[in-house]
Fold:
Amino acid sequence: MARGGKVKALDEAFRDAEDWYGSALSWLSKTDQVEIPLFYEEKEVKVSHSFAGRLLRLLMQFDRIFVETLYSQECGSISADQRTTTIQIAAKRITAIHQLCIPDTDKFGPDGTLISSHRSSPDGHA
Structure:
C-alpha cells in the first residue's frame, strides 16, 4: 500500500500524464481525420481505488490517441513519425506511473521525491 511521499509522487505523475494527454487530444481534435472502421473488444472493469480509476481513464485516452493519430495520419494531417512519437510519449507517461507502483520504490520523501533507489542514480545502482 502506497503512503505518504509515494502517494504524492503517484498523484504528480498522474497529473503530468493527465495534462499531457489532454493537450495531445486537443491537438488531435484540430487535425483533419479520415475515420476507418476499427473493431473493439469491451471489458467490464471494477474500479476499487481512485488511482485505478485514473489509470483506467488514461488507458482509455491512450486508445483515443492511438485511433485519432491513425485517422489523422490516414488523412495526411500528421506524418508517420509524428504518430509514432505521440504514441511513444503517451506510453512513457503510463510507464512512469507503473514504475512508481513497483514495490522497491517505497522510499519517498514527504515531497514525493524518490530517495535511495537503484533507479534514482545515473548508473542504475544505489
About this structure: Residues 5-31+50-103 form one domain. The radius of gyration is 17 Å. The CA atoms of residues 12 and 39 lie 34 Å apart.
